[in-house]
Amino acid sequence: MPVTEVRSKQELDGLLRAKKMVVIDFFATWCGPCQMIKPEFDKISDEYRVDTAFVKVDVDKLKDVAQTHNVRAMPTFVIFKGGSEVGRIQGADIAKLRESIGKHAPAQTFSGQGHSLGGPATAPPPASSAAVSGDAAQALAPPVDESQPSGEVMIRMLDGKQVKLKFNLHCTVQQMQETVAKIAAVDPSKFRLMNGFPPKPLEEMGATIEACGCAGAALTMRMK
């Protein structure tokens, strides 16, 4: 079945009542990982028949639906069976998504070129990433003065991977952005860091991490 975009809460509620199983992709147009996994999600939907619906919800257009289903990051995939949530995958993890769908799929729903129900799920290789992590990522950040207040920031990179970094609270958004650019090997002028929900860009490059409330926050890279 092709993936269709839900236009209203009423439409989604109707699908949850009518279909044996519904797989929802909560996405955002600015979300890099969402765009990366979209072709694979489309492929999975083609492997199922009419008793399973594959839909997508734009969290910026249907904020009330995203909030109702407690969506805090994109992409988030939520699986409903018989109107009740039975599975949730946060992030662009196609292998986990296939595994969860296969676990809950109604009997004999596979068709076409997909793998057989109960057979091994063959996931495509993960997308390559220029991102580094751990100590290697921290080494690209400004040195941390342990005598000064500091905090950790979680960054969701364009490929969906998360990188945890530690900064002194007097460090600026500009320094944080330049660090992320080094990790991802991209031009710092080509993206913005997003904070909060709904996500808002950190525009004040001279603002400190403390002033913009980023200490302990989870930020997302967004291409301009």
Automatic annotation (TrEMBL):
Residues 106-148 are annotated as: Disordered. Residues 1-106 form the Thioredoxin domain. Keywords: Disulfide bond. PROSITE patterns: THIOREDOXIN_1, THIOREDOXIN_2, UBX. Residues 128-141 have a biased composition (Low complexity). InterPro entries: Thioredoxin, Thioredoxin-like_sf, Thioredoxin_CS, Thioredoxin_domain, Ubiquitin-like_domsf, UBX_dom. One of its GO terms (molecular function) is protein-disulfide reductase activity. This is Thioredoxin domain-containing protein.
